[in-house]
Amino acid sequence: MTPEPRTAGEPPDASARRTLPRLLARNARDHPRLPALSWQPPEGDGNGDWTTLTWAEIHEHTERLAAGYAGLGVGRGDHVLMMMANRPEHWLSDLALVRLGAVPVSVYGTAAPEQITHIARNCRARVAVVEGADQAQLWEPLLTDADTPLERLVLAEPGAEGGHVPYAALLREPTAERFAEELDAARPEDPLTVVYTSGTTGEPKGVVLTHRQVLANALALDAVVELPPHVEHICYLPFAHIAERMLGIYLPCHRASHVYLCADPAAVGTVVRKVRPAQFFGVPRIWEKLCAAVRAVLSLMPAEQREVIDAASAVAREHVGYRERGESPPAELEERYARAREEVLLPLLAAGGLDRVTWAASASAPMPVDVVHFWAGFGVVIMDAWGLTETTGVATTNSPRTGFRIGSVGRPVESVEVRLAADGEIEVRGESVFSGYLRPDGSVRSALDADGWLATGDIGRTDDDGYLWLTDRKKEMIITSTGKNVSPALVENALKEHPLIGQALVHGDRRSYLVALLVLDAEAAPAWAAAHGVVADGTVAGLVAHPAVRAEVDRAVAAANSRLSRTEQVKRYELLAGEWGPATGELTPSLKMRRRVIRDKYAEALAGLYGD
């Protein structure tokens, strides 16, 4: 069970007056020796020594750090920009600034110079904290930009500061009486952060979130999850993403839990194996990659061993089926599942560090159902959720406590209401729905209608039990030349059910039929080739051209088409070798597809698919 949301001795209405600084003070008082934050040196691989601060040490450290920021002239209501990986300087600065009454604003490390300029001008920050010399080069032109009020850069890496402020110089003993009066004086209605949308289309918009909205969402999430007290969390997504802000900063303060910082997302598997967390959150692409890696290992096992695993997985899925229907599994099935889990499934999960997981979750984009069913075969039910930056993260979620439907994104949490417009667009309102978008003059532009409803841009449907099922983004729906509406995500997830296909983009707006760009999975493809005796030049690019691989992908597309309507079927495709990612621009930092970027990059290939 999660910790009680209200500390013993607090009045019943105390949660309505909560702020992040009050939670930090409570944790330092009630849980002073509990571990709060752990990290490795920047070059750490997850296996070496970790440094840990307790909640009492966090409270003392952030007070000294807040004094340093106050010495730079940062005060109540000021925005401070941060571009760093998931390192302690980022996490601790975030809390120190909040204690000071300032508003921390994280920027994606992959942001383009024009996006950085837009954000700096929009939030009017005078101070930015960046990781090292490479990041400083991106920000230095703004120091002399007449339209940008940026005055100072703070550099986190020792020895890289040049003429800028070294981060270590911020740690000082608080002395000024005025500083002591201002510390921890935030009100529930004050802005806690501004989160800029990652910009799949257009310029990023600054979403203003208050203490009240964030903590209302935290309470609502605690009502639907079951976790051990002071649960650990592996923090590897960017802090510029609302999911990691909630999971990696705000919920740990609310729950007095333990955060493990993972600065390099590529090392998350190693950290998971070390920590063996009770909870693990991954955007769909993370779960897809883990699934592909496990499938690759299973494909190389002897047939007898695979048969044992397949039998155990079938038992696990049968057990999950009863739970999904809200029924108690028969005693005989409980016995078979307990035996299969203990003898077969747990040892396999332990190899990846997932044997203690009681809450596995995903959000950010539609989750491929075959991936969910794959993990259900290990007894791990991924609780898919849905929400936006504008809803402070999760608005609906599946829950082991209140029920789940595989393929849906669950039911609304307590802090929001959900309804569907006439065209199927999802609308939300409630305590955890944002105040509005930040204007350069510091005011907030509301995006709500007169009754407080937010049009989300997502299309969905609800079933008789109140579960929400996503269809697609309203702006991303394909309208064919015959006027038929097609959800690209639905078709793409059908294509990705075959392990060879790691990524897919479907195209066909105002065209008579659909085509697709398919990317071979870099882990599953070599394993499939080895298992089928396919000899290439040892590269994924070599496999793309191999007749056996092309024939298998043809069968995969045909299998997907057999489950789709005629309008949704893919008539032609181009097979690619290079995986799409944030570094090459096809994905956002939160691993969502930038469709326009991909279409522009492969415009010639897409046009060729419509040639005679």
List keywords for this structure.
19 helices; 5-stranded parallel β-sheet; 5-stranded mixed β-sheet; 612 residues; globular; alpha/beta
Protein topology:
Layout: H1 20-30, E1 35-39, E2 51-54, H2 55-71, E3 79-83, H3 88-100, E4 103-106, H4 113-123, E5 127-130, H5 133-139, E6 152-155, E7 165-166, H6 177-182, E8 191-196, E9 206-210, H7 211-222, E10 232-235, H8 242-255, E11 258-261, H9 268-275, E12 279-281, H10 284-299, H11 303-324, H12 331-351, E13 359-362, H13 369-376, E14 382-388, E15 393-397, E16 411-412, E17 416-420, E18 425-430, E19 436-438, E20 444-445, E21 454-462, E22 468-473, E23 478-479, E24 485-486, H14 488-495, E25 501-507, E26 514-520, H15 524-531, H16 540-544, H17 547-562, E27 570-576, H18 595-601, H19 603-609
Parallel strand pairs: 1-11, 3-4, 3-5, 5-6, 6-7, 10-11, 12-13, 13-14, 26-27
Antiparallel strand pairs: 1-2, 8-9, 9-19, 14-15, 15-16, 17-18, 18-21, 19-20, 21-22, 23-24, 25-26
Helix pairs in contact: 1-2, 2-3, 7-8, 10-15, 11-12
InterPro entries: AMP-bd_C_sf, AMP-binding_CS, AMP-dep_synth/lig_dom, ANL_N_sf
Domain AMP-dependent synthetase/ligase: 25-438
Catalytic activity: a long-chain fatty acid + ATP + CoA = a long-chain fatty acyl-CoA + AMP + diphosphate
Q: Any overview of this molecule?
A:
Belongs to the ATP-dependent AMP-binding enzyme family. Keywords: Fatty acid metabolism, Ligase, Lipid metabolism. This is Acyl-CoA synthetase. By secondary structure, the protein is α/β, with parallel strands linked by helices. It is 35% helix and 20% strand. The protein has 19 helices and 27 strands. The strands form seven sheets. Strands 4-3-5-6-7 form a five-stranded parallel beta sheet, with helices on both faces. Strands 12-13-14-15-16 form a five-stranded mixed beta sheet. A four-stranded mixed beta sheet has the order 2-1-11-10, with helices on both faces. Helix 5 (133-139) links the parallel strand 5 (127-130) and strand 6 (152-155). The chain is globular and about 70 Å long.
